[in-house]
Design goal:
Pfam families: AMP-binding, AMP-binding_C. The protein is α/β, with parallel strands linked by helices. Helix content is 28%, strand content 24%. It has three domains: 311 residues, 3-Layer(aba) Sandwich (Rossmann fold), CATH 3.40.50.12780; 57 residues, Luciferase, Domain 3 (Luciferase, domain 3); 103 residues, 2-Layer Sandwich (GMP Synthetase, Chain A, domain 3). It contains 16 helices and 26 strands. Strand 19 and strand 20 form a beta hairpin. Bound molecules: adenosine-5'-diphosphate.
């Protein structure tokens, strides 16, 4: 017997419709590439998204066509999020920090029909224009006054002309919620980037889950600033969450340095911001140097890479900003776990709380997880035993776009498909998962595993260290031993011996790195993660040579 409730497809367009109808005068504030601050409302955004949809129809865009973007976090990008997906086409956000060859590959592989771009990325667009076989025109996301005169791009259109040239008279079509809405490629540190194609249904379910109190805890009383880019896994879903709950949105555009972020956080009275640890380190340095404090920020979600305990402590104990540590992946839309406390954690000392919060957190409803040993058997949730982390759920990838990337799923004895994340983790009795490493970064010393993340956390809590990366270096006796690459803070003094002595009593003696190499910087990838494969190439023979 079927239930007797109304049928309504879960569609992206319903989010902006809701935001317009129920939170129409709530603001969206953006720092623009043109240099100024732009502000308008959800109602304005909805009107312009419908103009975008009409413009796309006039350009001949049909359902399921992929439309690329190379753009910062801003209101025009938001209009495209809703205009493109809402009319039934597929929003394809491209990460401009990828190598130009990868960008050309991705646009070609996705068969993008049009590419919208912020002016910052004009040189990139010039570099790929001749290499993308399917792109019919490039649209600069600016007005006529700022449009470059001699761009050298034959088929260049102006966003404002295009949008304002069309009527807002448009009714969002109704279609199957399993229809694709967004395409994101993984960053492809090894091999070609792989396309993950989200559906309207998976994105809506992810939005509900992300907004919940024990997830990102968002409401109409929030002012949300996503530092995490809209070109990387939909800014962790925040442009959707804000519409669902009616929160004010603040977009930082290209201003991601500590000072620009701080100015915007304060001017717009932001309550909640989201970003990767490296961005927050820049902001915290700016606060420290200027003796500044936050007047409105209450909490922040940190993910994408492990949050160093030093960052957690500074935010919470130094500035009264609650830290939510989250874990996810492009293949998970991206949210998997969030480190929200349980009632039993209330009476804990700050140190005990920090230890819980340093873990990547509990599964949000919708995501199930398990850890497996080398023999494929499920491992206990004791907080100590580590193994391969697998997940499943309605917003987890089933297949990569055009099947390029192999079959991602592992089928268990009950014929259920599980996605192997490539991460190594423990899970404790409360269900808190902790990433100890990516499987390709783990250090295998004499057959035993050493967690590079744990070593990095200790090193980066030394007062003289700005950041640290620990890699497996070849060793004649133990096969691999940890080698620590460290970046000193400006003007700070510390020797390798002093830094190694700092590990005493903090981890097992045999986990202590064999050597320290001070470097000026560590290489970061397109999503803010340390490129350990590059470091390994450069330093893997270091211990053999010394
Ligand atoms: P990529 O495109 O580089 O794969 P993703 O953002 O999808 O980018 O990366 C997902 C990976 O990032 C995870 O598998 C995990 O290794 C790492 N990661 C994400 N969040 C965290 C976190 N909070 N702590 C540790 N690692 C994390």
């Amino acid at each position: 017997m079927n239930g007797l409730m109304l049928q309504k497809q879960l569609l992206i367009s319903s989010l902006i419709e809701h935001a317009d109808r129920h939170h129409g005068d709530t603001e969206i504030v953006s720092r623009r590439v043109e240099g100024d601050i732009h502000r308008y409302t959800f109602r304005d955004c909805h009107r312009r998204a419908r103009q975008v949809a009409n413009a796309l129809v006039s350009l001949g865009v049909r359902a399921s066509d992929r439309i690329g973007t190379l753009a910062w976090n801003g209101y025009r990008h938001m209009e495209l999020y809703y205009g493109i997906s809402g009319m039934g086409a597929v929003m394809h956000t491209i990460n401009p920090r990828l190598h130009v060859d990868q960008i050309a590959y991705i646009a070609d592989h996705a068969e993008d029909q049009y590419l919208f771009f912020d002016l910052t990325f004009l040189p990139l667009v010039k570099a790929i224009a001749g290499r993308c076989r399917t792109i019919r025109a490039f649209i600069a996301m600016t007005d006529r006054a700022h449009l470059p005169q001699d761009s050298g791009i034959a088929n260049l259109l102006c966003y404002e002309d295009l949008v304002e040239g069309h009527s807002p008279d448009y009714t969002w079509p109704d279609f199957d919620e399993d229809t694709a809405c967004t395409l994101c490629y993984t960053s492809g540190t090894t091999g070609n980037p792989k396309g993950v194609l989200y559906s309207h249904r998976s994105s809506l379910l992810h939005t509900f889950a992300a907004a919940m109190p024990d997830a990102l805890n968002c409401s109409a009383r929030d002012v949300i600033l996503p530092v995490v880019p809209m070109f990387h896994v939909n800014a962790w879903g925040l442009p959707y969450v804000a519409c669902m709950v009616g929160a004010k949105l603040v977009f930082p555009g290209p201003g991601l340095d500590g000072q620009s972020l701080y100015e915007l956080l304060e001017a717009e009275q932001v309550t909640f911001a989201a970003g990767v640890p490296t961005v927050w380190q820049g902001l915290l340095t700016h606060l420290e140097q200027g003796g500044l404090t936050f007047s409105s920020m209450r909490r922040t979600v940190i993910g994408g890479a492990a949050c160093p305990p030093a960052v957690l402590r500074k935010f919470q104990d130094g500035y009264g900003v609650e830290v939510l540590h989250a874990w996810g992946m492009t293949e998970l839309s991206p949210l998997g776990t969030v480190g929200a406390m349980k009632a039993r954690h209330h009476g804990m000392s700050p140190e005990e709380r920090h230890a819980v919060q340093a873990r990547q957190g509990r599964a949000v409803f919708g995501v199930d997880m398990k850890i497996l040993g080398g023999d494929g058997q499920e491992l206990p949730w004791d907080g100590v035993t580590s193994g391969d982390l697998l997940v499943r759920g309605p917003w987890v990838v089933r297949n990569y776009f055009r099947n390029d990337g192999g079959n991602p799923l592992r089928i268990d004895a009950d014929a259920h498909g599980w996605f192997p994340t490539g991460d190594i983790a423990t899970i404790d009795a409360d269900g808190f998962m902790q990433i100890t490493d990516r499987s390709k970064d783990v250090i295998k010393s004499g057959g035993e595993w050493i967690s590079s993340i744990e070593i990095e956390h200790i090193a980066s809590s030394h007062p003289a260290i700005a950041c640290a990366a620990c890699i497996a270096a070849k060793h004649p006796k133990w096969d691999e031993r940890p080698l620590l690459l460290a970046v000193k803070k400006p003007d700070a003094q510390v020797t390798g011996e002093e830094l190694l002595a700092f590990f005493e009593g903090k981890i097992a003696k045999w986990w202590t790195p064999d050597a320290v190499v001070f470097v000026d910087a560590v290489p970061l990838g397109a999503t803010g993660k340390v490129l350990k494969n590059q470091l390994r190439e450069q330093f893997q023979d270091y211990l053999l040579a010394s």
